[in-house]
Amino acid sequence: MLLVIDIGNTNIVLGAYEEDKLVANWRMTTKTPRTSDEYGLFMYNLFLHKGIDVNEVKDVIIASVVPNIMYSLVNGIIKYFKTTPIIVGPGVKTGINIRTDNPKEVGADRIVNIVSAYYTYGGPAIVIDFGTATTYDIVTEDGIFNAAITSPGLKISANALWQKAAKLPEIEIKKPKTILAKNTITSMQAGLVYGYIGQVEYIVKKVKEEMNLPDMKVVATGGLAKVIYKETDAIDVYDPMLTLKGLKIIHDKNKN
To answer: Which residue has better confidence, 160 or 168?
Structure first.
């Protein structure tokens, strides 16, 4: 069994693969400081709750954009799962050629998403990850990762509204019934969600124009993608497990 772990700024997403089947997945918060024992026991108990024998886990692979938790997390895995994880980074085989100005600064999560989209859906493709930040990553038909766009995520945008404007309340991020809002909460929701739909559609349009590839596939993932993807024709595929699939693909490339 393979344990895959995607560590983002807001959440840690875990998945357990039995051969090629994702048999379980979990989500935990990233921000809480934890010791190696806390990480190890928490993950250990997730497996027990699903009735999965932890001893079946033979390999672990991690993609992380949060360096300061890695020491405790990795040691927790070594202690409780008896295996040393693969960390996605320089020297790890991905099957993708990164041709940005500084390939070493590309986040592991973005690399994993590109790998997953390319080997699952083909290229050329735009991969949109609606996370803490919203990222747009481009992979060509022949597997070259050559461009990326980053914008504030939906939650960052919402937080800025209610933290910087004294009279604006904290709200649920969802699409209101109409853009013609008649109260403060729905006016904020309309601005956030409809504004974000507009951002997605314009960025996708400009990428396709500049690459002269009008039929590029657009793949969306991330926790907040579900708020946006049904509201626009700019997104072709919504795959909430894209990153976990990518980790499995990268693991297999490094084990074969």
So the answer is: 160
